[in-house]
Amino acid sequence: MIIEMTHIRKSFEGLEVLKDISFAVDSGEVVSVIGPSGSGKSTLLRCATFLETIDGGEIRYMGQTAAHTGEGGRAQYVPHHELSRFRAYCGLVFQQFHLFPHYSVLKNLTDAPMQVQKKSREEAEETAMALLKKMGIEDKAKAYPYQLSGGQQQRVAIARALAMKPEILFFDEPTSALDPELTGEVLKAIRQLAEEKMTMVVVTHEMPFARAVSGRVIFMDGGVIVEQGDPKEVFDDPKEERTRQFLRVFEHA
Amino acid sequence: MTFSTMISTMGAGMLRTVGIFVLTLIGSLPLGMVVALLRKSRIGPVRGVIRVYISVMRGTPLMLQLLVWYFGPFYLFGWSIRGWRFPALIVGFVLNYAAYFAEIYRGGIESIPKGQYEAAEVLGYTRAQTFLRIILPQVVKRIMPSVTNEVITLVKDTSLAFTLAYQEVFSLAKQISASQTSFMPFVIAGVFYFIANYVVAFAMERIEKALDYYR
Ligand SMILES: Nc1ncnc2c1ncn2[C@@H]1O[C@H](COP(=O)(O)OP(=O)(O)OP(=O)(O)O)[C@@H](O)[C@H]1O
Ligand SMILES: [Mg+2]
User: Fold this and answer.
1) Does some domain include residue B42?
2) Is B157 among the domain residues?
3) Position A253 pLDDT exceeds 60
4) With 80 as the cut, is the pLDDT of residue A252 above it?
5) Running DSSP on this structure, what letter comes out for residue A57?
6) Distance between CA atoms of A18 and A5, rounded to whole angstroms?
7) Is there a contact between A51 and B122 if contact means CB atoms under 8 Å apart?
8) B36 CB contacts (<8 Å, ≥6 apart)?
9) In a mutational test of the pocket of ligand 1, which residue from A11, A12, A173, A220 has the highest number of ligand atoms less than 8 Å from its CB?
10) Residue ranges lining ligand 1, Cβ < 6 Å
């Protein structure tokens, strides 16, 4: 298993957003997470990538514990310097890209490998150019983010995350901030990564994409995983009434 | 007094004015950043002290602050420090301007979207790397217009040094005007301030242009 999250609990000011969530992803898996607004999808991703701290439960990466519920029932994390090792296992692609506007596309991809992982410039640039090529934007290496379309920016953001060579890449609604005509190019890039057996967890509202690309779909509602399984089963023959309701609303949207 | 002796006498004052200006910036631009960061310190009492400092600096006249720095050591401790006039002046200016710059920096830092911090955090940047490499460069660009305003105000504020009878260009203009019963020194001082501000505005515009390569 790349990541195992077990019995995860997380509250914001008394509001319980994740209620005893357990979820694991194996190497090469592509998992889609769907669910209504406010169901805790982003929070789950943010806990998995250490942007939020869990209240209880356990997070393991590559079989190693990063956080677990200790005495007194509160989650305890490994010390700060060890946490950076766990951070290196995961990458996150945001809905709003969050590229560094003052860096060129190339520097967006090389800065962290050079500053954080102490890679040489040559190595970092070689990796970066290969990734840009894969994303179909190698001609934009010298451009600045503001000069790119949303779809191009999101592909840069994906490449930036991949440049760190994570074991698993999380996506939080990677196409929700894009104009409809630009979602295709980003989904195509993610699909290509899936074919290369990149381990990925994608929160998305793009149901046809989830069905076509992922090996497993997770439906979340109210801070719990209501149902999960093969996309065909979840979409065509959902077991739970809540899943059916959610998908029905979607079909008519 | 001929026009040329007037110019050369006032020239020395102009150099002193430039001295106050340059030293104030060298001191207050970095100190302002320290103050801005302490203002967001995790230690409550530090934040409290900094807040009081900023509100006193901004809530009382600079002229009064200069007098306090100059006469304070004597009236409070009975110290009479030789050659204290100029240091008192610089301390007063630096501490006052650092407070204003700190508030500008703070606004700039707070205007950077949270996503920039989060993107850096996920990529594994340390807190220091995040601030120096990702946040600060964007802050500098955003605050340039406010910093320009402040620097132009400083050019004019240097004339407050007359409060401590420091012979910069404005004090000299007053003296020479009185002794020569001539209006000319004020005209010269006015032209000097105007040109100085023109140079400052030009330099700041160049810096803003240089930062124009991204949005
Ligand atoms: N930092 C926070 N402070 C307080 N409440 C928060 C915070 N972050 C999230 N929440 C709350 O937690 C709940 C779950 O939010 P989350 O963003 O995880 O939902 P989501 O499933 O990603 O929804 P969406 O589809 O709208 O993105 C919401 O009720 C939200 O208001
Ligand atoms: Mg969300």
Assistant:
1) yes
2) yes
3) no
4) no
5) E
6) 12
7) yes
8) B101, B102, B103, B105, B106, B109
9) A12
10) A 12-13, 17, 35, 37-43
Q: Of A29, A41, A25, nearest to A95 (Cα)?
A: A41
> Does A87 contact B124 at a Cβ distance shorter than 8 Å?
yes
Instruction: Report pTM.
Output: 0.92
Residues of chain A found within 8 Å of residue B122, distances taken between Cβ atoms: 49-51, 87, 90-92, 161
Which structural domain range is residue B107 located in?
3-210
- What ipTM score was computed for the predicted complex, to two decimals? 0.94
Structural domains of chain B, count? 1
Is residue B215 a part of any domain in this protein?
Answer: no
Please write the tens of the pLDDT for every residue from B175-215.
999 998 999 999 999 999 999 999 999 999 999 999 999 98
* Residue linked to tokens 């120096």: B132
- pLDDT, tens only, A24-60: 999 999 999 999 999 999 999 999 999 999 999 999 9
Task: Please give the structure tokens belonging to residue B71.
Answer: 């006469």
Cα A67 from Cα A62, distance rounded (Å): 13
- Give the residue carrying structure tokens 């894969």: A134
Separation in Å, CA of A167 to nearest CA in chain B: 13
Query: Mean pLDDT, chain A, as a whole number?
Result: 95
| B49 part of a folded domain | yes
Q: How far apart are CA A223 and CA A16, in angstroms?
A: 7
The answer to whether B134 and B214 have CB atoms below 8 angstroms apart is no
- Ligand 2 centroid to A22 CA: how many Å? 18
- Could you tell me the CATH number of the domain that includes residue B53? 1.10.3720.10
Judged by phi (left if over 0) then psi (alpha if -120 to 50, else beta), residue A27 lies in: beta
